[in-house]
Design a protein that fits this description.
CATH superfamily: Outer membrane efflux proteins (OEP)
Number of helices: 11
Radius of gyration: 41 Å
Order of helices and strands: HEHHEHHEHHEHHEEHH
Distance between the termini: 39 Å
Strand order of the largest sheet: 2-3-5-6
Amino acid sequence: MRRLGVVLSIFLFSFAFGKDLTLKEAIDIALKNSYQLKAAKKLLKSKEFQFKATKGLRWPSIKFTEMFMRTNVPGWAMMNELNQHRLTMFSSAKYVDMTAMNAFFGMPLFQNTSYPEWNNWQTKIEFRLPLYTAGKIQTGIKMRKKEYEATKEDVKRTEQKVIYDVSKAYYGALLAKEAIKLAKQAYRTVEKHYKTAKSMYENGLAIYADVLRAKVYLMDVKSKISEAENNYLVAKKGLLLAMGLDNVDPSEIEIVGELKFKDTKKSVDYWEYYAINNRPDFIALKERVENAKRMVKFVKADMYPMVGAFGAYQMDDRHNPFGTDGTGWTVGVALTWNIFDGFQTLNKYKAAKETFKYYSHQKKGFKEFIKFKVYQAYANLQTAKEKLKTAEQNVSWAEEILKITEKRYKNQMASMIDLLDTQTMYDKVKFEKAKATYDANIALLELKYQAGALKKENNGGEQ
């Protein structure tokens, strides 16, 4: 069944999107196929059923029993015969030694006692209803409900992690695709250098070594194209794995999009405030801290008496199930109070209080940790933006230097080595600009993830 689901997902993916894949489509597919997210949702469903099961404690419990017994134990046999309304004064002699009465009457009226085997079919319906539990049932239901709600937040955080992983893999694929583009641009430029050197050599304006140097460099750039294409395939394979599609050939898809950066104008204070109030795992932790507090009340309830009602209706028969040789009913109210249990309840109560304090400190520490991670991510984003700004400036300068060097070479004022060195610098700066754009996107992605603001609707920008 699971394999059929995977095949169906792949078919729908191919049918709906063909070879082109956008970031939004990748995230949508991942949210449907992620094993991690599916597991989280199954756990959530389990918590929901646990909550519903706990709510049932408020209702009476009804139990049906059909039991067959055959025994020669005098007490059980006599009780079964009595329950069947078959026991009489004379039949009870089977269970009591009455031979001493023969001497009293002067004649042998009673034989030696025998203990016969006796059959009994018992049909029984019982009910129990808690009347007073010192708030234990209500507290237990509340705890289950809050744990269910906390698990919902865990699912949201898992969704954010899936979006984070897919987005990061997608940006990596865009970077690899950009590297192919840059390598091809470099090849065309170096090919132009090669043709220039060859033309100048043929006209006696350059040496043959310049032609060879340009040729070697051209072949090196060609190999880099092949390397970039392989890196692109690997990046797409990683993206498909993040999407939960491990049986799709990466060569069959094409990443759609442009590697560009859309900045956020919000301050670090805004992101810290947003994280403390919206990050799902912190909300879940706060719910569980409150549950630890409720556990104190839950355990304390065992120190008080419990009151419950009970009742039963039963039918007993010697020969048939559901028979009615004898019938009877019982109703009652019981008070149970565990007055002394070796200080077990008291120590459990103290342990629950300490556990609550432990989780309270954990919450405070986690809050500061979240603020630190947001602050760190925000600082990294500023660094990434500065590097991107510098890289953009460097590209314009390197482009100008390359143009000048090309003119100088044509005018025999610069060597081929100078030209190729300048070309190497230009290619490096162009890739560094692409890498800086990637790093800025990842830094913003990290900031949103740490703040708990990462959603498929606003990924990649400040929407």
